[in-house]
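// run 5 | inverse folding | seed 20
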């Protein structure tokens, strides 16, 4: 990003670090929030906590942090190849995400996004970590992305450091219609207890630039690596899919 562009962005959003890459998309074309409201049967996503009886499903540790009623609805819907949510997701990858990596002929992306639901007094993700650490085992070279589906701010947001080991944690300050690419691969990040009165809902997924993926996959030892929670291999056809520029 050239300096003047970055400077302009800084005026709009001072929560960003120099290596972040913020993009916008058209929410009418890719109406993720509208679809979630419909499948969750709520009027406002950021008031979702009013429908929740217990914090228990929203404070769980790694491997058990996606088991609430709402997580289950989301994953069931996005796994259905003919659902509106899935179709919009596929179009978003093919038309928008690929554009954000203009120097690549193809990109390798996490097939389906994760959803995070961070309700007041809750923790969407309990452990502070970086994705390449021993608990998560993600390949080096991945780029993280977050798509806010409600406003992300203060303690309902993701807090992260600017570069590995720096410890200068600050939260993303993001709104619906934005998508951020950042380094969660080697920068520590995590959640604080949500002290705001609003639920944060966001998607996240990883992009593996094709040349980085090639380097990773060239090492035969890496072929067996898999996700810590589901044991899905970090290869195209399993955890990832490849998307080509049209
Ligand atoms: Fe992470």
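// decoded
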């Amino acid at each position: 990003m050239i300096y003047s562009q970055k400077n302009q962005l800084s005026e709009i959003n001072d929560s960003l670090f120099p290596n972040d890459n913020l993009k916008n998309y058209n929410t009418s074309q890719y109406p993720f929030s509208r679809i979630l409201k419909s499948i969750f049967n709520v009027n406002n996503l950021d008031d979702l906590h009013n429908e929740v009886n217990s914090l228990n499903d929203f404070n769980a540790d790694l491997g058990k942090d996606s088991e609430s009623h709402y997580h289950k609805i989301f994953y069931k819907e996005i796994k259905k190849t003919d659902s509106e949510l899935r179709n919009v997701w596929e179009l978003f990858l093919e038309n928008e995400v690929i554009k954000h990596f203009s120097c690549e002929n193809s990109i390798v992306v996490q097939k389906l996004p994760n959803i995070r639901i961070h309700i007041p007094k809750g923790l969407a993700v309990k452990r502070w970590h970086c994705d390449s650490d021993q608990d998560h085992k993600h390949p080096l070279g991945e780029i993280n992305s977050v798509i806010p589906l409600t406003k992300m701010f203060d303690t309902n947001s993701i807090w992260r450091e600017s570069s590995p080991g720096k410890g200068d944690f600050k939260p993303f300050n993001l709104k619906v219609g934005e998508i951020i690419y950042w380094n969660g691969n080697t920068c520590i990040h995590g959640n604080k207890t949500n002290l705001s009165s609003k639920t944060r809902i966001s998607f996240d997924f990883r992009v593996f630039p094709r040349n980085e993926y090639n380097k990773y996959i060239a090492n035969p030892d890496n072929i067996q690596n898999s996700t810590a929670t589901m044991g899905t291999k970090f290869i195209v056809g399993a955890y990832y899919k490849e998307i080509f520029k049209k």
